[in-house]
Amino acid sequence: MIGAFLKRWFPALFGSAVVLGASAALAISPEDQLSLKRDCIRPHVWGGFETRDGLYEAAETFLGEPELTDADKAWIKTEIERQWAEKKKAEATWLEKTDFDRLDAVFQALDKSGILALHNAGNTQSDARGDAGQAWHDRGGLKSGLRGFIFYHGQDLERVIDDGQLYIGYGVVEGSKEQAVEIAREASTALSKAGFAVAVPPNADERILVTGIDWKKRSPE
């Protein structure tokens, strides 16, 4: 799990910078620092799913890379700590019930009604569908009473933090496209009743789109 998490964190450092060679020291340039702050560290701190220890554990695993200098390691850890403190301070000013809390309530209600609802499932639609299939199996498969599933993944989480738009995938483990669309409509209706602005997908090739979300998820301690 941590390996996939790290690839989502540091795409700049897993990309062109590595071609410097195993023996070369990698110094994070000011441009890469800005990219890491904005595109990598921020979504995972402000997404709200990782504990503080989880963030450090993932960072420490990555910081074992030989290409990083001691200064690079110190900078990354300091930046994680800075953003964590900034978020915890912001949390104290949030309303008791945020948009995420309302979304989570909808997901929990749908789950109880027979639609498996997954938050932050993997990093791609393929990951999320795999997670949904595994969860369906773990909960008893055909005996579980689950009629279908909905999800959003890591890239969707990054998007909603930036622009308030959350794409939600859906499907059925065993069934037709028509049955999958029915799952989407049922989920869309529940989201709309909870006060969200929802674009219902016209067919099984498009996802549910929820707009205008102010993403505020409190981080676990």
Can you characterise this structure?
With 221 residues, the protein is of the alpha+beta class. It is 53% helix and 10% strand. It has a 5-stranded mixed β-sheet with strand order 1-2-3-5-4, sandwiched between helices. Strand 4 (197-199) and strand 5 (208-211) form a beta hairpin. It is elongated.
What is the topological layout?
Elements: H1 2-9, H2 11-14, H3 30-46, H4 52-62, H5 70-91, H6 99-112, E1 115-118, H7 125-138, E2 148-151, H8 154-163, E3 166-171, H9 177-193, E4 197-199, E5 208-211
Parallel strand pairs: 1-2
Antiparallel strand pairs: 2-3, 3-5, 4-5
Helix pairs in contact: 1-4, 3-5, 4-5
Task: Provide a short characterization of the protein structure.
The protein is α+β, with helices and mostly antiparallel strands and 221 residues long. It contains nine helices and five strands. 53% of the residues lie in helices and 10% in strands.
Tags for this model:
221 residues, alpha+beta, 9 helices, elongated
- By secondary-structure content and strand pairing, the structural class works out as alpha+beta
Could you describe the largest sheet, including whether it forms a barrel? 5 strands, mixed
Quaternary form = single chain
**What's the count of strands?**
5
**pLDDT under 50 segments (min length 5)?**
1-7, 11-26
What gap, in angstroms, lies between the N and C termini?
20 Å
How helix-rich are the residues, as a percent range? 40-55%
